[in-house]
Amino acid sequence: MRHLLSTRSLSRDEAIALLDIAEDMAAVQHREVKKLPTLRGKTVVNLFFEDSTRTRISFEAAAKRLSADVINFSAKGSSVSKGESLKDTAQTLQAMGADGVVIRHPASGAPYTLATSGWIDAGVVNAGDGTHEHPTQALLDAFTMRSRLHGAASRGKGLDGVRVVIVGDILHSRVARSNVWLLSTLGAEVTLVAPPTLVPVDMAGWPASVAFDLDEALATKPDVVMMLRIQAERMHGSFFPNSREYARTWGLDDARFSQLPTTTMVMHPGPMNRGLEISALAADSAQSTVREQVANGVSVRMAALYLLLSGERGELR
Question: Which domain holds residue 122?
Fold first, then answer.
């Protein structure tokens, strides 16, 4: 694997292989010494142009557990705040000998530009670009679903027939986009639920159905309900009347949660707005996978870095 930029370009076999490697990486987390020598001598740069807690720390932990050297770069306080371009930043990293670059950027397509421009030889991982994609989040979500559904017998399996309902701000969510493509590739049936104003105008080709009534979607007893954060920082208009109205109509409150089968997984990529898109009861229940998703993120990102930075590099992905 040369780069990891999108889930849309991953084949089923590639996605399952990555999840299987993540299973091996998860086993390392239970050892007394949680490190492998695999990437010793490699340098991974976390190049974050947007604020992040979970993703940046997760990638840092993943790289260090593979024995790589890690450089954390934040746009705030760097030359970027003085007007330095992405090209100049990339060439600086090239001069420093970066082997892998994990990039989060507010502009959709920035990771692809970095990977294909020739500015840098490093493998590139997309850690979220604008409202485009966030592939490792989708991979850790799929890993979490697979682990809960199949347990120790997960290896080699997809998510065939699993019914997933994704609820919330689809319009601005790169997590939703990556999940739609990946989950569909793995055989899941995806339904998107949102206010009409928070659904992309052009969804031609998306392998998912769209609904606007959350109660009707939950009445089908889905295997997974994934709640998304309202991304107020990306909104420049009124997409719904107010927070109370949104929570009443599209939030997973106590009443809706109590009607779900006890086998239904409740997921959230974080950070959560408790009381808005999800209630505390749902978020803290035994059905919630929120903490598992964070823990699994390290294993999945270890797998991604392993594939990018060890052995031969294949064609662009």
Answer: 12-133+294-309
Contact between residue 166 and residue 199 where contact means Cβ atoms under 8 Å apart: no
Is residue 137 marked as binding?
yes
Domain count, the chain: 2
State the CATH number of the domain containing residue 125. Answer: 3.40.50.1370
Residue type, 243: S
Under the banding of pLDDT at 50, 70 and 90, the label for residue 79 is low
Q: Is 2 part of any known ligand binding site?
A: no
Check the annotation: does 104 bind a ligand: yes
Alpha carbon distance 202, 26 (integer Å): 38
Give domain status of residue 5, yes or no.
Answer: no
The helix, strand and coil proportions of the chain, stated in percent and rounded to the nearest 5, come to 40, 15, 45
CA distance 247 to 276: 5
The answer to whether residues 109 and 150 belong to one domain is no
229 assigned to a ligand binding site: yes
270 is in an annotated binding site: yes
Name the pTM for this structure: 0.93
* Cis before 37? omega within 30: no
Looking at the fold, whether 117 and 160 belong to one and the same domain comes out as no
Check whether residue 270 and residue 299 sit in a common domain.
no
Place of tokens 């089908």: 220
Give the tens place of pLDDT for each residue, 264-310.
999 999 889 999 999 999 999 999 999 999 999 999 999 999 999 98
What is the spatial distance between Cα 183 and Cα 186, in angstroms, rounded to a whole number? 5
**Is 251 labelled a binding residue?**
no
CB within 8 Å of 100: residues ≥ 6 apart: 42, 43, 44, 45, 63, 68, 122, 123, 124, 125, 305, 308, 309
Residues 298 and 262 in one domain: no
Q: What are phi and psi of 118, to 5 degrees?
A: 85, 5
- The answer to whether position 281 is within a domain reads yes
Same-domain pairing of 179 and 302? no
260 within a domain of the structure (yes/no): yes
174 is in an annotated binding site: yes
Shared domain check, 187 and 122: no
Q: Which of 98, 75, 113, 138 is nearest to 269 (CA)?
A: 138
